[in-house]
Amino acid sequence: MAPDSSLTYPLIGLIVALWMVGAAWAIWRGMDMQSRARRALKATSRLTRLVDGAPAIPVIIRADGRLDAPERFTKWLGLEDAPRALADLYGGPGYGLSEAALKSLIADVRHAQKGGGQFRRPLAVQGSAKQLLAIGGLADGELYPNGAALVWFFDASDSEARI
Questions:
Q1: Cα–Cα distances in Å, from 31 out to 28, 35, 38, 135, 140?
Q2: Average pLDDT, the chain
Q3: Is the pTM of this model over 0.70?
Q4: In sequence order, which ranges of the chain are alpha helices (DSSP H)?
Q5: Distance between CA atoms of 138 and 116, rounded to whole angstroms?
Q6: Cβ–Cβ under 8 Å, residues 40 and 60
Q7: What are the phi and psi torsion angles at 56 (to 5°)?
């Protein structure tokens, strides 16, 4: 039995036309997404440069003590290697934070992570005249849902020298 050619070819044509419309929509959608991604990358790049040039350094301290910090923070502390954990901020005698300052900072961070409180603590960098001011609290729960702390470190050397 031969297929009815009067209906077969129009159905094939309809399927091909729908396929073409779907392909055109997919290409248009892909180009739109690519354009949005380019704009987002440009905005992210602008914001990154803004934060990199800011007088403060944001540091994320996760619930397990791991750090997310820019390289500039390592230089401020006079450390050779980037600190991976909160305990690494003490770099030994003459480097990083003193043991007492680090213990105080750890207590402040734990309090912020568990109770949601905020803190403000001046910190001296060993082996340097640099004075830092740490201002912190609980990080945004949408970005860091497991109770991370966001600590802003300011170079307060000039202010402390004036005081």
A1: 5, 6, 11, 43, 32
A2: 88
A3: yes
A4: 5-52, 71-77, 99-115, 157-162
A5: 5
A6: no
A7: -130, 155
